[in-house]
Design brief:
Structural class: mainly alpha
Number of helices: 3
Order of helices and strands: HHH
Radius of gyration: 24 Å
Distance between the termini: 77 Å
Length: 93
């Protein structure tokens, strides 16, 4: 049996506002229609759109460390601690 799937259901799924039960029902309807792959492609498209929208708002993220990149400093310091801030504690008044 074919089911009618509303655009609002798909948008609610993409935005994450559906409950677990509603997601299950939506997936079952799409499966019955033979359109379950539609959900995957919609999610990919939605994610790309959100990425583009974020770039528009705040610019592209230029701080990226690749998966196979090595650290630029030696992090194996034994028992020493490294801090970005100074080790100066505030004086008690």
């Amino acid at each position: 049996m074919k089911h009618l799937i509303k655009d609002t259901e798909l948008v609610a799924y993409l935005e994450g506002t559906l409950s677990k039960e509603e997601v299950r029902q939506l997936k079952n309807k799409l499966k019955d229609n033979g359109e379950l792959s539609l959900l995957y492609h919609l999610q990919l498209s939605y994610d790309e759109g959100m990425k583009d929208y974020a770039k528009e708002l705040i610019g592209e993220d230029d701080f990226y460390i690749g998966l196979n990149s090595a650290p630029s400093i030696n992090l194996n310091l034994g028992k020493e601690f490294r801090m970005a801030a100074d080790k100066k504690f505030p004086e008690k008044e």
